## 1
Amino acid sequence: QVHMVQLGGGSVQAGGSLRLSCTISEYPLQNYCMGWFRQAPDEKHTEHEREGVASIDSGGTTAYADSVKGRFAVTEDKAKKAFYLEMSGLGPDETAVYYCAAEFAGIATMGGPICLQAREYRYLEVWGEGTLVNVSS
């Protein structure tokens, strides 16, 4: 069974930067969407209601939420079976638990901006355990 392990996160002051990583036990050879999602600590959302932040598909196409464009970057390293989220210019309102996820069916054959939609990770999906990012003012 495929599983994902997240590293990174922690506390940072407003305007600071952090890097999150997600290692996947078996990196897919074909279609996939991989995304980063977040949920404020006090929100009671299901995984499919989380806010999409950034994504990358099997063709290398990236997508970003409007609120993070120019500040966040998603990359992957297939040799290391990992993908990353580089965050800069963080604001206190971005304090949240950040999750990585992968989808290997459904939207994986489409790619592009739909990979940002958490509700579409519902066919052959895997979620990371989440990591807290705390941004202080």
Note: DSSP finds no helices and eleven strands in the chain.
## 2
Amino acid sequence: QVQLVESGGGLVQPGGSLRLSCTASGTIFNINDMAWYRQAPGKQRELVAAVSTRNYKDYADSVKGRFTIVRDNAKSTVYLQMNNLKPEDTAVYYCNDRDLDEWGQGTLVTVSS
């Protein structure tokens, strides 16, 4: 059974940073493409960043230059480093295994002064 467990969310002031982590179990992590999505209140879930098995990375325009996705195959973990956070980044962030279409439970990020 595949499990994705996210952590690292919380409350941060505008301009601050957070690092989200997603650790996978029950799967061969290094053969799957991974991604982070987010869903803000009243909005549809959107892709934030993705990383392929060959470490090709893609980002939403709204986070380019501020967010970085990193995968550590040895730890079966994908990270999302978020810098210069803005109030509009407030959302529940979800980890996604794109090949298996599995999702984590989500972690809440709130950017507010």
Note: The chain has a mean pLDDT of 95.
